[in-house]
Structures are given as C-alpha cells and as structure tokens.
Amino acid sequence: MKIGLYNLEPKLKNLALEKIRIYHQGQGDIVLECSPLEAHNGFDKIYASSIFDWTDKRYISPDMITGGTGFDLITVLPPEIESIEPHLNFGYTTRGCFRNCKFCVVRRKEGELRATGYIKNLYNPSLGRLVTLLDNNPLGLLEHFATNCNQARELNVMLDWNQGLDHRCLTPNIIDLIQSVKHKELRFAFDHPSYINSVEKAINLLQRKGVNRCNWYVLVGFDTTFKDDLFRLNYLRERGQNAYVQRYRSKTKKLGVEYTALAEWANQHHIFHGMTWLQFTNHPKNKTRKQYLQSISS
C-alpha cells in the first residue's frame, strides 16, 4: 500500500505520525509525506494529524484518517501503533498531568499523570546526543524522573525538557538532580500573576544553587489583562530571567497587535534585556503603533 502522512503543523515534530510511519514500513508499505495537493495522487491511506484547533483544516477531506488535539480529544492510535517506541531522540516518559489548568487540555485528554517510558527507549545515538522530552509534568513522579536522570547520565545525553518543568515542584534536592545531568536551558511557566510568590521562591532556590537564568513561558491573552502580562515580564526582566510570550489562540479568539509587539520585545532575549518596554515602544520600528502601545501600557 501507499501511505500518506499529512502533518498540519510541519514545523513541529509529530510523534503519532512517526509511529504510524514505522508501523506501515514494518508492513512493507510505501510511506511518504503528503501535502493537500497530493491527496489524490494514488494514496491508499492518508493520516492527517494536528496539534492545535486553530490550524487551518480546509484541506482535510472525509477519506483522511484524522487525529490529534487539533481535531478532538477522543481519537487514539490503535494499540499496535501506540505501543511502538520510535527511538528518535524525542518523545514522552510520562503522560497526563496532576494539575488541571483551565487553558490546557492535557488532563482532559490524557488523564492522571503516569509513567510511560524511559530515556533509553527514546535514545538513538546515530541522531546525536540531544533528547527532547515532551512530558507535561514529569516532576510529579519524582522517582521516575530520577530514574530517567540516572539513565541520561549513563548514556551521556543532553536533555531538553521542552514543555517546561513545574516551578512549584522545585526543591533543593530536585535542583541538584536536574543539575546532575547535561541539559539545555531550563524552562518554567509563569502563567498568571497570582503565581508571583511561587515564582519568586523558585528563582531564589535556583539562584542559590547557581542556576542564575532560566526561560519562563508567559501565557498572555487567556484570563489576564495586558497590564498583568507586562507586570510578569517586567518582574522576570528585573530578576535577570529570560521570557517567552505564549499567545493564547483558539478558533474563536485572535489577539491584537499589542501582543505581537510584546512577543517581539520579550522573545528576542537580547532586546528584552537590552531595553525596557517603554524604550522598545519608542523605537523607530514602532512609529506607527507607538501611541497605541503606550496608551494600553499606562
């Protein structure tokens, strides 16, 4: 058979499609990337996967097999495909979450936090030493987290906790454990101004352990005002932290130009640390939107 794989967010790695690829190749099938224009080019099956509900779905046809949170929270891979361990240096060691954040679908889609795998089952030395973990809250299972850190040290790999770690779970011992392995810049989340005390506690803990700068995801446009968002970014800047503005998007909600400007300022770390928000709004590139940006900030 000729199998097509259609990734609606091609800039992002899609684990489900990789499992499907491995399964069908094992069946002796021809597996190819598929664009919407090629949908009728002799494919026997086309699998389409999407992560975000706001991604353009106009090219999806009824004969495609669809899945992912961009379509629904119900569809799952058949057991014979889900059980495949791709060894592609990215994937999950846990699924689910013990938090229940309003903006996040993980708890509804995947249920309670549980252990599902190990670094050794993801790692492929032919693809390099970096292993990207997509876990949503691995610090909630500390023994399993420690086991994977031990494996990372034994395999001499570098870990990237891509989705971020829960700053509320940090303790001196956990920070020691994290520092015992090679890793990319640590990521955490500052999702709401009400977390200011726990964020401050986490930064103080990290800095006492010699981790002076981390990257903090800052959710904007969900249930906070622009001033709330600017408050969190200014706090992180004052504490010498990096920030990454995550603009909340859905099929029914599109954010204004002020959030685009906020991301342009904060997400480019040399600009974020090199100038204040007011200095950024006064920059010549913001000439046409300066008055609006300064009025909404005041």
Notes on the structure:
By secondary structure, the chain is of the alpha/beta class. The protein folds into 3 domains: 84 residues, Rossmann fold (3-Layer(aba) Sandwich); 99 residues, Transcription Regulator spoIIAA (2-Layer Sandwich), CATH 3.30.750.210; 92 residues, no CATH class. It is 33% helix and 16% strand. The protein is built from 11 helices and 13 strands. The strands form 4 sheets. Strands 2-1-3-4 form a 4-stranded parallel sheet, covered by helices on one side. The protein has a 4-stranded parallel sheet with strand order 5-8-9-10, with no helix packed on it. It has a 3-stranded parallel sheet with strand order 11-12-13. Helix 1 links the parallel strand 1 and strand 2. The longest helix has 14 residues. The termini are far apart. 28% of the residues are buried. The mean pLDDT is 95.
Would you report the number of β strands? 13
- The percent range for helix content is 25-40%
Secondary-structure element string: EHEEEHEEHEEHEHEEHEHEHHHH
Number of helices: 11
Short description:
33% of the residues lie in helices and 16% in strands. With 298 residues, the protein is an alpha/beta fold.
Summary keywords:
3 domains, alpha/beta, 33% helix, 298 residues, Transcription Regulator spoIIAA, 4-stranded parallel β-sheet
Please write out the topology:
Blueprint: E1 2-7, H1 15-26, E2 30-33, E3 45-49, E4 65-67, H2 79-82, E5 90-91, E6 94-95, H3 106-110, E7 114-115, E8 130-133, H4 142-155, E9 158-161, H5 172-179, E10 182-183, E11 187-189, H6 196-208, E12 215-220, H7 226-238, E13 242-247, H8 257-266, H9 269-274, H10 277-281, H11 290-297
Parallel strand pairs: 1-2, 1-3, 3-4, 5-8, 8-9, 9-10, 11-12, 12-13
Antiparallel strand pairs: 6-7
